[in-house]
Amino acid sequence: MQNSRRLGLFMILTGATLWGLSGPLIQWFFQRTTISSIDYLVIRLLLAGVFILCFLLTKKQNIFRIWQQPVHLLHLIIFSILGMLGAQYAFIETVHISNAVTATLFQFLGPVLITIYVAIQNKKLPSTLQVLAIFSALIGTYFIITNGSAHNIVMSKETILFGLLTAIGFTFYTLHPTSLIQQWGTTLIIGWGMLIGGIALFIYNHSFEWKQFSQTFTLSTFSLLILIIIIGTLSFLLYIGSLKYLSATETSILSSIEPLVATIVSITWLKESFGVYQLLGGICIVIAVIFLTMPEKVTKSTFTTEQI
User: Fold this and answer.
1) Domain residue spans of the chain
2) Does the global pTM surpass 0.85?
3) For the segment 125-148, what is each residue's pLDDT rounded down to a tens digit?
4) Cα–Cα distance measured from residue 194 to residue 175, given in angstroms and rounded to the nearest whole number
5) On the CB side of 284, how many CA atoms lie within 13 Å of its CA?
6) How far apart are CA 111 and CA 281, in angstroms?
7) Residue among 145, 166, 163 at smallest CA distance from 154
8) Closest among 192, 284, 228, 188 to 30, alpha carbons compared
9) How far apart are CA 81 and CA 202, in angstroms?
10) 12 to each of 167, 191, 198, 211, 308, how far by Cα in Å?
11) pLDDT tens digits along 177-226
């Protein structure tokens, strides 16, 4: 049991570190090439989707079973386009027009939106810690956007828009496929979600040409692209795998090192600079996520007040 727990801790910490590293790598990739975020995402989704589905085939899983269920297939297509494609495009575009840390922190607003949605759906007011988490996230978002001054907004309107769409996309990406994942498993749904989303974006993106795409690459930039895809896919598989050995609460808390890694790498490697209030805002958002992952019994022992 102890060895299994150590393996789970290694997997989640490694996965979160790799995911935090992938954001700065994507930003560096955009700085070194002229490729658009849409063209990049086409390749990323297609290759990652094929990689995951081939991985399942090596495990002798029937990846085509879900295609025999029309209702589930419809929900899969909706998830692939609005969830997988929508969330990833918003995240990649935020990285493209801003930076990796900003995109990562906006993504971390997702759990807060999920909490609000669930409270509305269940017609039940959030608990004390959930209220504190929402309040902390709002303060953090304010600091990130304004750097402490409402008269000095440091982000463009496009960055704020795509950042918020990243949070909304993450929320839909998490909530919509719940029944599909219970029925078919996370890896299968994610694999098909990436492949279908990539195909849909390829069809939509009329300007994409494989020949022109390949001509924009050198060996080093193409290698970097493959590395980013491998890191992103591997980090996801490690995160999913850690759930076999750790609770969802533990994995959620430990995954909070992701924005820390993204910040450290961006400052030391990409020479990004952030205001004091922006860094404080990032800390507030991470604290909000930690609040949301605390179990109910901890909430009651720490705060004597009942739910609001």
Assistant:
1) 35-216+273-302
2) no
3) 888 888 888 888 889 888 888 877
4) 17
5) 19
6) 16
7) 145
8) 228
9) 12
10) 22, 20, 27, 38, 33
11) 878 888 888 889 989 999 999 999 988 887 766 665 666 667 778 888 88
